[in-house]
Fold these 2 entries.
Entry 1:
Amino acid sequence: MAAPDSPSMLRNLWYYALPGAALPRGQMVARTILGEPMLFARDAAGQVFALLDVCPHRGMPLTEGSFDGREVECCYHGWRFDRGGRCTAIPWLVDGQEVDVQRIKVRRFPAREHLGNVWVHAGAPDADEAALPELPPLPDIGVPDPNLAVEMDFACHIDQAVIGLMDPAHGPFVHTSWWWRPNRSMQVKEKAFEPAPLGFRMKRHQPASNSRAYYLFLGGQPETEITFRLPGVRVEQIRAGRHQVVQMTAVTPIDEATTRISHVIYWTVPWLSALKPALRRIAHRFIDQDRMIVEKQQRGLKHRQPMMLVKDADTLARWYFGLKKEFAQAESEGREFRNPVPETVLRWRS
Ligand code: FES
Ligand SMILES: [Fe+2]
């Protein structure tokens, strides 16, 4: 359930759709995003595109049909559509039956691919593609595709997934695995924040010594910088000596009650690749701990709204709702987005 004073789901933004590796050339994949069935395909030239996965003739999901790398063919009556969603053929027409097939269209969604991630823009149907904003920025550390990609669905609204994932105070109670925090050690954390485009940034700092994984996997003295951006994209860039690790967690609503979490990791540390199966299990376990906790929370939230947001540890959640509200307001008033996040230092124990 969304917070009562915030719009439920923002539309006019880029959403993470799927890892590029999940979309081989000449194939299509069905995904539901913001309650809409979408077809993602990669054409013969390697370009990705997205259409509404509904045939305009009689509603058949187009992904039930076929794709030859150029056109999608509906499985019901064989109507064909190009990557722009324009109809190119209605096979049953006979000579003399004039139909301007080009005027029949499937809704097209702008889709872009960057560093092995496919994004979709969920804004107005006829948005001018050239005028769309840039994709959420992801630092390019010279690794063209994620070394690791994990996806998981949470049975909750996007707001609960976002604030659950960025919550700074649940670590000692939820992520208690030996490789992360062997016990409930808690320290006072003090982090400096500043506004960043459509979000905020936790300024570059050295992670706490009770965050064991950093030391375990990187060695040396790492430094990390974390940015958050609407609709729910968290990017962490870790530098340790000459090595870098970038991880991104992107949150995409499937519908009001289900949210997909996509986590991708890039690294320049060659020996980490040998540990990939173990790292995959760890990433999966970590996200699954977040999933289990927010899913349990849903049972109680039905009976207690609104939530309490207390002091610094809950400030990120407050900022998230503030950013969302301002985004919707700026849009409805047709003005520039004014970032409500202040430059500040937050303190909490975790
Ligand atoms: S339903 Fe798609 S061609 Fe008829
Ligand atoms: Fe977590």
Note: The pocket of fe (ii) ion (ligand 2) is lined by residues 165, 170, 174-175, 290 (CB under 6 Å).
Entry 2:
Amino acid sequence: MSVPMPQHAYVDGQYMAIRDATVPIEDRGLQFADSIYEVCAVLNGRLLDWPAHLQRMRRNLSALFIPLSHSDAALGQIARRLIAGSRATDGLLYIQVSRGSARRDHGFPGVVHPRLMMTMRRFDFHQRAGQQARGVSVMSIPDQRWGRVDIKTTNLLANVLAKQDARAAGHFEAWFVAEDGTVREGGSTNAWIVRGGTLHTHPLSAHILPGIARDSLIRLARAAQIPVVEAPFSLDDAKGADEALLTSTTAPLLPVVSIDGQPVGNGTPGPVAARLASLVADEIHRQTGWRSR
Ligand SMILES: Cc1ncc(COP(=O)(O)O)c(C=O)c1O
């Protein structure tokens, strides 16, 4: 009996196996990075923070004037069908919307047909438990990105190069540092430090992505009476902090135990990171029923 191929991709109204999914050569996402994206965690077959991801995606679409006609309900239906079709319970749902295909010309085409693409790939969130226990290292790198990184576009070349440099040097993440020495965020994560029991993270601005995990951590920390300050901090502040950490959809909370080879605090995950990690784990469990092994 033949087993049907998992269908974990969606492009322009069609469901298919990911290896059969393609886009035309004149897609503007491919030609100009003229597209936005979202990455959502799927745990126990359920989407984490789905309304927040939809809301951010709508904001990005309107910032770039991409007229996606799908309703939130239609997007949710496609996502759920892909999750079921993938036969994975834990994974990452990737959504991309480009300004569609058109003869190559920088200005917008007269008539725009946005292209909606989604994939669902298996992802092992349990692997994060070990990293959470050990902590991870980061290295600093000059921020050479464009001036609107608050819009989640597929224009990620600076992030790709920064993360490759970090990986080649044996680090988990690269932290982008502005010319004035301010730590902005990581290549694909938001950056945090802890000083005197208070959490600090860069304020929302054009220079950081408004991370869904960042927003969630701020709410969880405040609800647990852990003070949070959204204000810039420098690389020197980070190196001299009691603790440091990073957050993202794929790494909900990881302690940072060294920066540029210098230990943060005593070089091991600290008590505030441990407390926050347990708040995040409880929230994930509340929404999806998922627990780390
Ligand atoms: C540059 C950057 N900052 C922060 C984040 C974290 O955002 P989120 O928590 O929504 O995953 C990401 C995620 O991809 C990112 O690419």
Note: The chain has two domains: 9-123, 128-288.
